[in-house]
Amino acid sequence: MTPHCQYVLRLADTNLVLAQRLGEWVGHAPxxxxxxxxxxxxxxxxxxARFLLSHAGELEGRGRDEDALAYLREESExxxxxxxxxxxxxxxxxxxxxxxxxxxxxxxxxxxxxxxDAKLAAIxxxxxxxxxYHLRYSSGxxxxxxxxxxxxxxxxxxxxxxxxxxxxxxxxxxDVDRTAAAAGIGPSPDTLxxxxxxxxxxxxxxxxxxxxxxxxxxxxxxxxxxxxxxxxLLAEMQSLHRAHPGAAW
Amino acid sequence: MPLNAPSRQDRHEATRERVFSVLATVPDPxxxxxxxxxxxxxxxxxxxxxxxxxxxxxPTYSGCPATPVIKADIIRAxxxxxxxxxxxxxxxxxWSSDWLTDEGRQKLLDYGIAPPARAVASPRALWQxxxxxxxxxxxxxxxxxxxxxxxxxxxxxxRCTACLEPFDYFKCL
Lengths: 249, 173
Hints:
The complex is a heterodimer of chains A (249) and B (173).
Chain A lengths: L2 H21 L8 H29 L5 H6 L10 H4 L5 H22 L5 H29 L3 H14 L4 H4 L3 H8 L10 H14 L23 H14 L6
Chain B lengths: L7 H16 L12 H4 L2 E6 L5 E5 L8 H15 L4 E5 L12 H10 L1 E2 L28 E5 L7 E6 L5 E5 L3
Parallel strand pairs in B: 2-3, 4-7
Antiparallel strand pairs in B: 1-2, 5-6, 6-7
């Protein structure tokens, strides 16, 4: 698999896994509006994932379509960021994870709009408009939770502290990132940090939440080395397709 | 060839008009008061010399479940009218709610859905204040957003504080 294909697949898997996580809230969210909100964000991410998976399949050139890539790969073949596979926890934890992700994805998509990969640029130009809504939603809730009751503040702060170590991977470049950046396919990950910092610091200040200390913890989900949580998510996501190979609606 | 026979160009033009008149009858499955033309999702129509018709469709939201239904409905409607049709995704430029036609905006309003605020040209401004959204029932501007996300990806849920009715707002994108 070329670095170009791997780069696109990382983005696809990151969206797919987060969409699946958010889907776990359907029927369980604290209020009907949030049930719909989380499901809508999930749906956007899933739609973007489908475009990205199909594109990765075309770049790979081995005839694998979006379904083959989503349902018939093993855990170590998934190249998503470790942050997005973390369990939902409580609503505050889901919102904190979403906020840290949305702020990153907004900066990423804005940069990808000028990608030399025209298909990727088109997917990003479409996605960036959706991500703005997601970020507004997650920022709004993080602010209300942080600047809410002592209980909601404590839970939001705890979620941020637990998730923060996973944010290092968002900005750490490896060979795939460097090759993609050199070819103008994607931005060098570290160049997204300033935009992310600006969003995160502004919202945390509004939410009266302290920024957790930097962590040197290095996660490697995008190289296929995951936390213990991804396997369970995939087992659920892939079971139907694997139990009924070739089934169609 | 007789002098008054229609040229190939004219025949193509006539075919295009007939294709568009069929497309005008294909509804959005989630907001059936709008046709796919009102919605602004039809990006191109290409008529091949063998009579095949290719329709380019812009998805509204990336994950909107209506998109595959719209494509299937277009193929079926054109098929019923005697064409062999295909429908392809057109991602670029991305669909915008600015592409709703004026007629489509009026149909939304009559249907009880507030049409999108104008000029999404700069969706970059993330924190900009929302435009005033008029209640589709009583036209009051005393409205408030209940939820950013509504019953379909393209709508938000609002409430009118004048007539106290909740209503859908077709979001800017």
